[in-house]
Batch of 3 targets.
Target 1
Amino acid sequence: MLGIYIYLGVIFLIFLTFFMMGGKKYKEFIQEYKADFKFTAFAPMSLAMIDTLKIMQRLAPQLTSVNQKVIQVYDYRRGHGYTKMHIAELISISFICLLFSALFGAIDGGVEIIILGLVLATLLPFLINKQLDDKIKKKKEDIIIELPEFVSKIVLLANAGSNIEKAIVRTVSQRKDANTHPLYRELKEVAAGINNNSNFAEIMEQFNKRCGVQEVSVLTSTILLNHRRGSELIISLRHLSRDLWEKRKTVAKIRGEQASTKLVFPMVIIFIVVLVIIGYPAMSMI
């Protein structure tokens, strides 16, 4: 029992020390990324630990893949900040597991709870990192779903006499969720580059890299090869639009199948509960 109290004291002391070190130092930094992360109440402690122990510098090779995933999920322009907050959230979750398991272990006197806390503190960060892959997949699917509609609008504007640059700027300006949708968030950068008279080919190449989707790569190549050819560009975009609508149907079908699969487990649980409610009285009467 004494060992459990010592363990709780050590965990609480570490938490309190780094929390006081963080204090209000990271208030503005946390506020900037607050919308995308959950455990921001523990962030000052985690950020102080990251800077004091120089975690990001010492584990730079190991964090490269995490950084690349974070950039794809969030904002490439603030990739370092998002990676730092992501690591801080992993540390926060681990500390919450350790702190509460130690607290309940001290109350109940059970070592099993502390062991469970240690296991959760180790496994949860890996599971959260796995969620980055799911978020990247969802982002790419969202882009594929929206892409054919965007191309169709570009074709309509091009048919009306607008050039490709003006068509992109106008389409983006008319979109209300340009700051939140993954495709239009990247297209907003394209529109800003066009308005600043930047090199169009470079803008589109950067757009292609940021999206990291094969369909966007095909669209970019089609535009760059034909954007000064007028009618040929429209014909090429029409053919591409048909292919993109088929891709959209495929993604929508897969999402529908996944949604129905996720409903199977709750339905099985409900069936078992109903079976027990109905069957128990009948069995007790026999």
Note: The CA atoms of residues 6 and 75 lie 43 Å apart.
Target 2
Amino acid sequence: MNAQKIAILTDTGTNTPTEAIERYDIRVAPLRISFSDGRSYDSGTGITAAQLARQMADETPKTSLPSPEVILQLLEQAQADGYEAAVFVTISSGLSATCQSVGLVVSQMRGFPVIVIDSRSIGVAAGMVVVAAAELVEQGVPLRRLRRRLDSLAGTTRVFFSTATLEYLHRGGRISEATYRLGTVLDVKPVITCNEAGHLVVARKVRGWERSRSAEISLAREHARRFSRVRLAICCSDAQADVFDELEEQLLAAMAEEGVEVEGEVLHSDASACLIAHAGPDLVGIAVQGVA
């Protein structure tokens, strides 16, 4: 427990790295994953990303936000464990109602102050905001100042991701019919990002899977040049785990060429089951967070 006794909470949609969850005692609310035959799982605990990928050949499952009861239980448990306040960082409110649900639960609590942060992103980019919250608390930044600091960091954090097939994004309604057909016929792969409102949008379109990863590096570089210092993160599905080292080398080389200092180590995160449910089993993502 940190000296300020401020708990950090999040949901599985942020793909917060496991090492950070363990180091900072971060409490995680699982999104739910459901199939049409009635099967339903908690992301991460009820089913792993690898297990889910094997079940997605015939159907793309739906995801739903954590129940208010689960959110309340996590907050009450944090209080019972000796924490005196909390920060809850959620997946983008433009993609999920989790942020609103947490806000409603928090509004009914008494004697346990909680600030709710909308990361306005998804995956490990949102996870970077979670890690930043934990680090700021460790540094002694008081609760009253955390909202402004974290809102600012959420605004400087961007995710860029792509998938080998557009089938799953199309099934889930995350890309348009036109983008899907163009990609299928011409092998055009869109690199997806979140806009300032936290909605998924196409950042760039390229021909071929290999080029999409190069485009991610290029987009990360373009975002990073706005800052003198950045933090970096990589998120891959189990099927793409062998590209972590290559991507990290390319990212660091791109930052060096731009003259941008990289703060700390490059965060690595495995894609969560709820992210695989939307993007499919072949996912590669990069996140950049401007810090100065």
Note: The longest helix spans residues 123-138.
Target 3
Amino acid sequence: MLKPGDVVIARVQFTDTPEIKARPAVVLFQEFGNVVVAGVTSNLKMKGIPLSKGEGAVKDSVIKLNYIFTISEQMVYKVSFHLSQEKKCLIFDELARRLGELKG
């Protein structure tokens, strides 16, 4: 059972190509076999929430909250590590800020 804050390796389709590759992602929530995740990149020029090797990442990386998508739980290969409560709060606060813009 996947939990919010799990960093997983999953089969992910890129937005600009039909290619599917194994990539890291952060689990936001899971329901009925669907897993909503945020992508993770090692491209430190991208905007997002920093994720360091000291936290468990293979490389210093960025959690991309502008790249949220749903995958089947069967597309998850493994759980790599779990985010700290502090990091999960940063993700929640940033998502809440962005979704707050929907109110107008």
Note: Helices lie at 85-100.
